[in-house]
Amino acid sequence: MSRDAAMPRVWQRMLSGRRLDLADPSPFDIEISDIAHGLARVARWNGQTRGDHAFSVAQHSVLVAEVATVLSPEMPPADRLAALLHDAPEYVIGDMISPFKALVGGEYKAVEGRLLAAIHLRFGLPAERPAALTRAIKAADKIAAFHEATKLAGFGSAEATSFFGRPRGVDPARLSLEPWPTALAQQRFLDTFGQLTAAMGGAALSA
């Protein structure tokens, strides 16, 4: 058996034609079209949500960017872009629910971290987020998760509060919680990305 035949495949071919190495991801192999396509087809909550369509990670990402902006209206476009991309590695590794992540352990987080660093570099962001920005994105993520849990995933308010905290500072009536069809989720993710990169003065980053 040849050495190549014995080695496990750790890369994925994307529809753009890129081949992304999960062990050592390169920013040069990352395209926003692949991210949007993949995230629009990955279901939050393992698909256990109400509605005719899955609530996709693409829609969740747009929601988190919107919540982060409501919480911090002066948040610069680059930080809002980081919020939009906070779950971007899931276009490759899928959306594992938190209980399963806890079972898998640290290796999952290491792969996720390498992917997120490469994604950040591809789109003009620091490889590692500042701690304050990470906290801001996590706060927005928990607010989004609370409302997704109670409106779509069958959680009661008390149960959701025990996992995600009680949401404050955002009117849930302003949130887009009706699951979008796949094509719409993909396009709205791309639209938000385009608006933010243009505001950063780097529309070429989307090429």
TrEMBL record:
Name of the molecule in the record: Metal dependent phosphohydrolase
Source organism's superkingdom?
Bacteria
